Amino acid sequence: GHKISTNEGGSGSDFTDGIKDGMPIALGYFAVAFAFGMTAATQGISPIAASVISLTNVTSAGQFAAITIICDGGTYIEMFITQLVINLRYMLMSFSLSQRIDENASLFKKSVCAFGITDEIFGISSARKAPLKPEYMYGAMCVAIPGWVLGTVCGACAKDLLPAMMLSALGVAIYGMFLAIIIPPATEDTAVLKVVIGAMALASAFKYIPV
């Protein structure tokens, strides 16, 4: 039932708007990171190491791939290529938001925003009317990233408490959360709807077409 703030009407400061919009993301991140923490712990990675990975990366698919490479004794080159391919989309997201962010923002502020870009934070930031203030993204990051790290710690410490079925269910939570972000604007703007449908079609094609 949460509606993303678009900064129309001056409902509050950019930072507090970011916190409000970031809370649902933090809850979703907690669930997915819980699954990551449990997976890392079962691979012999300590809760502290797992939490450091989450704090410095903040990427679901990238982190799951990383612990697989680490535990299989992969090389740094393998890790580099894997992370580059998996996280390349964040570069495109940064390019997109750089066209909308406040032109008066310093390079340092932009760099902090770039570090905190995730699929969901990109989604809510894109819904803001230009110019996008860095403080809005700071607010979202202030709750989303701690939610991700806290979920990792709790999952790593409770790896033997939940059955495999529950672990699998937690891993699906992030997809439901992302749908909640893209469906409302898609119902209001046919251009967004076309992009969503096109992305789904391409993703399906890449997965199921043999070549």
Protein described:
The protein is mainly α. α4 (76-98) runs parallel beside α6 (119-126). The model has no long low-confidence stretch (mean pLDDT 86). The chain is built from 9 helices and no strands. The chain has helices spanning 14-42, 47-57, 60-71, 76-98, 107-115, 119-126, 134-157, 164-188, 190-208. The N and C termini lie far apart (42 Å).
Low-pLDDT regions? none
Beta-strand segment tally: 0
Instruction: Tell me the number of helical segments per DSSP (H or I, 4 or more residues long).
Output: 9
The portion of residues assigned to helices is over 70%
Residue share in β-strands: under 5%
For the sheet with most strands, the description reads: none
Class inferred from helices and paired strands = mainly alpha
Shape: globular
Please give the alpha-carbon distance between the first and last residues: 42 Å
C-alpha Rg (nearest Å):
18 Å
N-to-C SSE string, H for helix and E for strand: HHHHHHHHH
> What is the residue-mean pLDDT, rounded to a whole number?
86
Topology:
Elements (H helix, E strand, L loop, with lengths): L13 H29 L4 H11 L2 H12 L4 H23 L8 H9 L3 H8 L7 H24 L6 H25 L1 H19 L3
Helix pairs in contact: 1-2, 1-3, 1-7, 1-8, 2-7, 3-4, 4-6, 6-8, 8-9
Summarize the structure.
This protein is 76% helix and 0% strand. With 211 residues, it is mostly helical. Helix 4 runs parallel beside helix 6 (119-126) and helix 6 (119-126) runs parallel beside helix 8.
